[in-house]
Amino acid sequence: MPLAALINVPANLGYLALAGIVGFESMGVPLPGETALIAAALLAKRGDLSIALVVPIAAAAAIVGDNAGYVIGRKGGRRLLLRDGPLLEQRTRLLDRGEAFFSRHGAKAVFLGRWFAGLRITAAWLAGIHHMPWRSFLFWNALGGIAWAVTVGVLVYIAGHVIEDVVKTGGIAGAAVIVLAGGAFLMWRWMRGRSEARR
């Protein structure tokens, strides 16, 4: 089955579905946000959607959803984790470790979390729970959301026929691995270029 069929909506509703799935996943709801972006990029490759709209819609939905997740985590996440009940000691320890981690690596976690399913759902909550400064969160979150939408969306759009062939033979997991590997390579090249420029 072609990956584009995973978003089973008419082409003129694809943008709304894309925004909703990506936005709610970023807010913390376990939805297939990256699958939705891949599918929308394939629909754009077929001419049913416009890649010039798919990429900014996905980026904007990711940023808005993450900021909503940040607010939820900041306002009520800590209170929820410290409620009396089972595993309170473990939850408290997890909170303490998370605080230390975010004080050292918060920016990296927020930025790179866009490319990892577990972090994509939880990074914004964790940033809010551990009171990462909102301006810093917004900057790295926006940078990550834009970079993720551009790398994944454009990569799938350019390699659309190859991705569809991979889905037919290796399933969605195979396509996700290729997209993630391609995105990781592009990010590595970009970060290496910045490092060399600084030196």
Main structural class: mainly alpha
Helical content stands at over 70%
Outline type: globular
Biggest sheet features: none
Q: List low-pLDDT spans.
A: 1-11
Note the beta-strand portion: under 5%
Give the averaged pLDDT, no decimals: 78
> How many strand units?
0
Radius of gyration, taken over Cα atoms and rounded to an integer in Å? 18 Å
What distance separates the N and C termini?
48 Å
Describe the protein.
The chain has 199 residues and is mostly helical. The protein is built from seven helices and no strands. It starts with 13 loop residues before the first helix and ends with a helix. Mean pLDDT is 78; it is low at 1-11.
Summarize this structure as a short list of keywords or feature phrases.
single chain; 199 residues; mainly alpha; 7 helices; globular; disordered N terminus
Secondary-structure map:
Layout (H helix, E strand, L loop, with lengths): L13 H14 L5 H14 L4 H31 L6 H25 L4 H13 L4 H25 L1 H39 L1
Summarize the structure.
With 199 residues, this protein is mainly alpha-helical. Helices cover 81% and strands 0% of the residues.
